[in-house]
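Box 3.1. Reading complex inputs
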Amino acid sequence: GNSVTQMEGPVTLSEEAFLTINCTYTATGYPSLFWYVQYPGEGLQLLLKATKADDKGSNKGFEATYRKETTSFHLEKGSVQVSDSAVYFCALSDRDGTSYGKLTFGQGTILTVHP
Amino acid sequence: EAGVTQFPSHSVIEKGQTVTLRCDPISGHDNLYWYRRVMGKEIKFLLHFVKESKQDESGMPNNRFLAERTGGTYSTLKVQPAELEDSGVYFCASSQAVGGQGPYEQYFGPGTRLTVT
């Protein structure tokens, strides 16, 4: 079956530091890949996505590149802000037409950014 | 436009009691999903409705869980009787119409935190 593995957290950084959160996946086909973010007290929000190999998703200064050869989708940001403090989830969705968008999530990584 | 809403935001019940969670999807979204996150672990899929029909309920843990979607609008998830291991955060998500290549973005609600004591 499908699975997603994220680096274990929590991650604590100072403002303006570089962020990397690792994500690797196992899937039978060619899934779509996502990063979701959950800010305190809110629901999950889609941060970025990539639907095929070598695609780069980007949003709010965050980037992630779909690497089929390493089955990875690492999240990066060059300079984090205090407002980026949240829980980040890597996820995938099959594109074989049978799962209708069902998401498989990683464990989540808590990010705390200090001023 | 209102987002996905869930009620209650937090529920504390005793083992053996019954709890019903409600989800109101974004208006016009045919797809409705339930997920659950237990004790800081990964978020796991429970089931998927297309309109009022259950498309996939492969993630439902056992027959103590019953989900319905009345008239293809709001959905309820009933746990009866609740057990300690049912504690966690239950998320609902919705996405737009079936068809096409997809996957369509899923919009999540804030979740219901269920605590079974």
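In summary: Chain B has a mean pLDDT of 91.
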